[in-house]
Write a structure and sequence with these properties.
- The chain has 3 domains: 67 residues, Uridine Diphospho-n-acetylenolpyruvylglucosamine Reductase, domain 2 (2-Layer Sandwich); 153 residues, Uridine Diphospho-n-acetylenolpyruvylglucosamine Reductase, domain 3 (2-Layer Sandwich), CATH 3.30.465; 106 residues, Uridine Diphospho-n-acetylenolpyruvylglucosamine Reductase, domain 1 (Alpha-Beta Complex).
- It is 25% helix and 27% strand.
- The protein contains 9 helices and 20 strands.
- The strands form 6 sheets. It has a 5-stranded antiparallel beta sheet. It has a 4-stranded mixed beta sheet with strand order 1-2-5-3, covered by helices on one side.
- Strand 18 and strand 19 form a beta hairpin.
- The protein is globular, with a radius of gyration of 21 Å.
- The structure holds flavin-adenine dinucleotide (FAD).
């Protein structure tokens, strides 16, 4: 069924807790309803499909239609040592992680506690602790607005990269609505606990003795220590991308850091990825506020709205202040990971 509500309050549909409204809110239960949803959306000047709004910052009331998929189904195709899951886009990623790991299936446990829905997780190639949605997504069913039909994209056509995919590429922005995702998970143990924080938790344990639920719980516990729970402290997770710079820029930053050890990751293309959190912390922003917007005390990459009093402009003012100090001190430009609408 398609439901339509005009002049709708989006507070519960964005984890920053912004009290913004959209001109029309359209929800649907089945992929077959997408053409009807798009017809209703076309009566307004623009539209956007959202999941849980955990990577979005609505900068003002939205004069268009906001689309959302309510479908949360999951089907299992058993294949001896693995299972192909056919999952609706509207299922919460964390629910999927809990359901599969409780059944002893491996592959999604490191993605525990990432807010948001399965469809968006594919679009974003959500990832954490050495795992990414794109590793498991074998086939993505997406409605192509240009062709007016559903297309099936195998993994190799999705162009998964660091927090990106073909569905998010600028030339495709808004073109596809992901409605179903086929994911491959395993019955045999294949723990991915190389990430230092996880390695530490399971030190001395035979990896083969672990269960996916144990790894999921460890990931969730590590995340609870580091990140704010969006239900309690509104945020959109990591606000900035980790900058990827040329080696000369990195060398210059090291020189400017006067004796500090600069964490970094050497990339295959000769470039260097620098943790934005480190740069922000060095500029003294950890735990600091600018008006009602605050940098999270345990993870400076996260901008929060702790008292739910911040307006979009307050978040953007803090974003700009942080970016300006990092640019001034290190000569590195930070780009937001969070998408402004
Ligand atoms: C506390 C916190 C921690 C976080 N930690 C992580 C983390 O560890 N790793 C990580 O990767 N991310 C993390 N995030 C960011 C966020 O959870 C992910 O980006 C998530 O995948 C977004 O899902 P969503 O359903 O909220 O999508 P939304 O924010 O609603 O949308 C994101 C994008 O996807 C598009 N979209 C949504 N649904 C569809 C669809 N069905 N078809 C086509 N396009 C669609 C939207 O238009 C938008 O462009 C975190 C966020 C928070 C608040």
């Amino acid at each position: 069924m398609v439901s339509t509500i005009d002049n709708y309050d989006l507070s519960e549909h964005n984890t920053f807790g912004m009290k913004v409204r959209c001109a029309r809110f359209l929800e649907y239960d089945r992929p077959q309803e997408i053409p009807e949803v798009l017809r209703l959306a076309a009566e307004l000047p623009r539209h956007i499909h959202i999941g849980s709004g955990s990577n979005l910052l609505f900068t003002q009331d939205y004069d268009g239609a906001v689309l959302h998929c309510r479908a949360k189904g999951i089907k299992y195709m058993d294949m001896i040592d693995r299972v192909n899951l056919v999952v609706d886009a509207g299922m919460k990623l964390d629910d999927l992680v809990r359901i599969t790991t409780d059944q002893g299936l491996w592959g999604l446990e490191n993605l525990a506690s990432i807010p948001g829905e399965v469809g968006a997780a594919v679009v974003q190639n959500a990832g954490a602790y050495g795992a990414e949605m794109g590793y498991r997504a074998m086939d993505v069913h997406a409605f192509d607005k240009q062709l007016g039909d559903t297309l099936y994209f195998p993994q190799w056509d999705c162009d998964f990269g660091y927090r990106t995919s073909m569905f998010k590429a600028p030339e495709n922005k808004g073109r596809y609505i992901v409605h179903t995702v086929e994911l491959l998970v395993y019955k045999f143990p294949c723990p991915n606990i190389e990430y230092p924080a996880l390695k530490k938790v399971f030190e001395g344990r035979d990896p083969k003795s672990l269960t996916p639920a144990e790894v999921r719980d460890a990931v969730a516990a590590i995340r609870r220590d580091k990140l704010p729970d969006p239900a309690v402290v509104p945020s959109a997770g990591s606000y900035f991308k980790n900058p990827v710079v040329d080696r000369e820029v990195y060398d210059r930053v090291v020189a400017a850091a006067s004796g500090l050890t600069l964490p970094h990751y050497d990339m295959e293309n000769g470039k260097v990825k620098i943790p934005a959190a480190w740069l922000i912390e060095q500029c003294g922003w950890k735990g600091k506020s600018l008006g009602p917007a605050t940098v999270w005390h345990n993870q400076p990459l996260v901008i929060t709205n702790p008292d739910r009093k911040a307006q979009p402009a307050d978040i953007i003012a803090l974003e700009r202040a942080i970016a300006a100090s990092v640019l001034e001190r290190f000569g590195i430009e930070l780009t937001p990971e969070v998408e402004k609408v």
